[in-house]
Design a protein that fits this description.
The chain is mainly α and about 400 residues long. Helix content is about 80%, strand content about 0%. It folds into two domains: about 190 residues, MFS general substrate transporter like domains (Growth Hormone, Chain: A, Up-down Bundle), CATH 1.20.1250; about 180 residues, Growth Hormone, Chain: A (Up-down Bundle), CATH 1.20.1250.20. The chain is globular.
Length: about 400
């Protein structure tokens, strides 16, 4: 039996590799898009609608392809899939910088969506989850800390680099540095645990049964009590984050609205670390419900008050749970579905929650446009959070399979 609490346990090097994957994909393919929008407009004179349309297409392609992660993993393996994702992201970054026409822009963002498949939440959760049982919650939380760190580390560094050497040279340097770090880390550390490797090498060893069908997963109430609440929560969360400055500026001014965003971002990092410390001792469904309700209370506070201190506090409280809506779903799926079904279930979950969540900014904007202010939009977001909290605590009496870690 491996000691998962030991710093020398090989699984912690796997966590570091996954942290670097998350740092890169979230930093360059999500938080970096604000930089790309500005620089591509300046370089090529393309309208914001053209560039943002390519970004939206990227997200939609990613949400479709991720459904088939299980088949891709079976054909390529997790290591090769991660390497393919790294290659797609690096090529897309270079192509973005030197895109001669809109078709190349859309091709670049399409490649970026394939980067998400190879480096995103499904692969990271599958890789880390295979190495840990007792400390799985901590391990997954630390790996996904890279997602929050992408906005804190990668984006400011990219902006600084662009200011010194220009956009095109900066993207070449960034992609080269990324390749020099990620390729060796992936080759050295992304691998199945020894037990799985031994089973693969020895045909006489008992192997897991074949994967579950997506139709069967979707017939299970347990799946929908994971997919729907997190989809609703992500819709409210993404919608608020995109509109946060516009919401808060009339209440507390532009400078303090920016401070509220900083407080939310900083608390998202603190929240991930805090959850990781206690996640293995918590019921992840109850933790999700508490996170959703805390965000609903924060949004209600923002709606009801113009007091600067309360608005800043509410933004910080909201931020504390931002990362939980990414960390908790794989923990629930690991507990309630058999290990060999994880990539099927997680891929389907990611596609559904990601697609629904993508409508969050547009939905909040639509309600705001019709009502004339953000009051009704905040009520909608609060309602989605409360409804999500009510659904996620529901439990099916029939599980998909034996839990893959102790309750």
């Amino acid at each position: 039996m491996h000691d998962e609490t030991s710093p020398r346990y090989a699984g912690w090097r796997v966590v570091l590799a996954c942290f670097l994957l998350a740092l890169s994909i979230f930093g360059f393919a999500l938080y970096g898009q604000g930089v790309y929008l500005v620089e591509l407009q300046r370089l090529n004179g393309w309208p914001a609608s053209l560039i943002s349309g390519a970004s939206t297409l990227s997200l939609l392609i990613g949400n479709v392809v991720v459904i088939f992660t299980d088949e891709i993993v079976r054909r390529l393996g997790l290591k090769r899939l991660a390497l393919a994702g790294i290659a797609c992201l690096a090529i897309s970054m270079v192509l973005l910088a030197f895109a001669p026409a809109p078709w190349a822009l859309y091709l670049a963002f399409a490649l970026m969506s394939l980067g998400w498949v190879g480096m995103g939440t499904v692969v990271i959760s599958a890789v880390v989850g295979a190495w840990f049982v007792q400390r799985r919650g901590l391990a997954i939380s630390l790996a996904f800390l890279g997602a929050s760190s992408g906005g804190v580390i990668v984006t400011p560094a990219l902006v600084l680099l662009v200011g010194h050497v220009g956009f095109q040279t900066a993207m070449l340097i960034a992609s080269a540095v990324m390749l020099m770090i990620l390729v060796p880390a992936t080759l050295a550390w992304i691998a199945p645990p020894p037990e799985a490797a031994a089973r693969t090498a020895n045909p006489s060893s008992p192997a897991p049964t074949s994967g579950i069908s997506r139709a069967e997963v979707m017939r299970r109430p347990a799946f929908w009590t994971i997919a729907l609440p997190f989809a609703f929560g992500i819709t409210a969360q993404v919608g608020f984050i995109v509109h946060q400055i516009a919401m808060l500026e009339p209440k507390i001014g532009a400078v303090r609205a920016g401070l509220a965003v900083s407080a939310m971002t900083a608390m998202a990092v603190v929240g991930r670390l805090s959850l990781g410390v206690v996640a293995d001792r918590l019921d992840p469904r109850l933790a999700a419900a508490v996170s959703l309700i805390s965000q609903a209370i924060a949004l209600a506070t923002i709606r009801l008050t113009d007091d600067v201190h309360l608005v800043l506090l509410a933004s910080a409280v909201f931020g504390f749970s931002v990362g939980n809506l990414i960390t908790l779903p794989p923990l629930i799926i690991h507990r309630e579905f058999e290990a060999q079904h994880f990539t099927v279930v997680m891929g389907l979950f990611t596609a559904i929650s990601g697609t629904i969540g993508a409508f969050g900014p547009g939905l909040i904007g639509l309600v705001r446009g019709r009502s004339g202010d953000y009051g009704a939009a905040l009520l909608l977001a609060i309602g989605l959070e409360v409804m999500a909290a009510a659904i996620v605590v529901l439990r099916s009496s029939r599980r998909v399979g034996k839990a893959s870690c102790p309750p």
